[in-house]
Amino acid sequence: MLDITLTDSGYGQPMTKPDTDFELGSFLPYRMTVAAERLSAGLAKRYRNEFGISVAEWRVLVHVADAGAVSIREIHQRVHLEKSKASRAASHLEATGFLIKEVNGSDRRLVALKLTAKGVALMRELQTIALDYQSRLDELVAPYKSALEKALDAIMEDDF
Amino acid sequence: MLDITLTDSGYGQPMTKPDTDFELGSFLPYRMTVAAERLSAGLAKRYRNEFGISVAEWRVLVHVADAGAVSIREIHQRVHLEKSKASRAASHLEATGFLIKEVNGSDRRLVALKLTAKGVALMRELQTIALDYQSRLDELVAPYKSALEKALDAIMEDDF
DNA sequence: AAATACTCGTTTCATCTGCAACGATTAACT
DNA sequence: AGTTAATCGTTGCAGATGAAACGAGTATTT
Question: Is residue B15 part of a domain?
């Protein structure tokens, strides 16, 4: 498709349209990014406003709650967080009393993150909210759920 | 599931596990976010290394290429970019000679972004790469493609 | 027409981000 | 053992980010 309004009179001159069409709205990376932002937005906002917890902190909390005493490195690998981001999230959670940072006895380079009782209580609240949220989402995507999961698996596993 | 290693001896004391399990790995907002990052990463890196173009700039380019003379506001609404981000992306694209910014004649608050010939040439290259990328992705998610699209539509359209 | 309210794009500011460098610790090698 | 290499978490830094404020322009109201 060639646009007749083109004025290709040299470098630096204004053009209104190129000769091909590309729809961002049907470009998968774009669509996935926007959809993911939308999915996270509601929950993230609530966590921030009601508990002062960021997404990074939420991920740290989940992993510590699930795996017990973990290192920064482990969080970095398991929940897709840059190690500096994981470190800062953990420090902030420690500062706000939701977890403690100890030195790992057998390897003193490692840190051992553990929830405090306050952290456990927080997690109980956050999990309840997250599970509610998840069930609303499940309802929304119910007809496509299994294909969606498989597509996500394919994206995560394959190299491209 | 109750973890017997709990030492709930008061506030601020270390805990190893809470009494419920929550799997981040099966939490849709998390999965979508990570998958979206993965989908964008390859292309974004290439655009950045080979052309010095950010994701925001890429979105601006696509919309200007598709819609001709557009305002910042229009970009903001159409391609899911904060207006300050759109403004900065446009300024950088102007500084590097890929587009020009004019004042809209009928409403002088508005800006009119138009590709330069250099911008059109860039877009031709970027689009080719993007379409190649898209076709590899399509291949990857082929079995789930239509369900995936419907799921994304549902996420974008519904309120939850 | 004057006053007020709104809109647009930019910029300011405080915060966030990712990368690289760093000190501390442990592992590997000779 | 002593040297070198690797790993861990933190931090310094430069650039990115989002929200709010701002000036310039336009719409609306009186």
Answer: no
Asked whether residue B117 is domain-assigned, the answer is yes
Task: Select the residue from A32, A115, A136 to test the B interface by mutation, using most B Cβ atoms within 10 A.
Answer: A32
Point out the residue among B24, B33, B134 whose CB comes nearest to the CB of A27: B134
The C-alpha of B121 sits at a distance from chain A's nearest C-alpha, in angstroms, of: 8
Count of domains for chain A: 1
pLDDT band at A20 (very low <50, low <70, confident <90, very high): low
Is B84 contained in some domain? yes
Residues 6+ apart with CB under 8 A from A87: A72
Note whether B96 and B61 are within 8 A (CB): no
Q: In what order do the strands lie in the sheet with B111-116?
A: A14-15, B111-116, B99-103
Q: Which domain holds residue A114?
A: 26-134
* pTM (2 d.p.): 0.89
pLDDT at B129: 96
Domain harbouring B95, CATH code = 1.10.10.10
